[in-house]
Amino acid sequence: RLPIRYALTYPKRLASPVKRLTASDLATLHFELPDTGRFPALRMAYEALRAGGTATAVYNAANEAAVSAFLQGKTGFIDIPDAIEGALNAIPARAPDSFEEILEADSRAREHVLSHITR
Question: pLDDT tens digit string along 60-69?
């Protein structure tokens, strides 16, 4: 609730009823591994990191293009991971020799997503 409150009240911060965390609160937190089956975009992000090279630029650009299309009502929310995966599969990861090659991977990923929007 706190991040949503921050977003809704930006740039002013209203007083929050949410209790602040203390060091002793942090000691009792329990973390579990994320379910990458339920969150396929997270799985693909890890895969892009392992692939290295331009894969992370492709992932990021495809994600931004798909989210933008969703916000414009051109595709569904659940279509975002498919758009990312499509771009990652279509644009091979490679070790870039220049910054321009990273920008080219970014551009190709955005174009790929936009050309495959479902709505």
Answer: 999 999 999 9
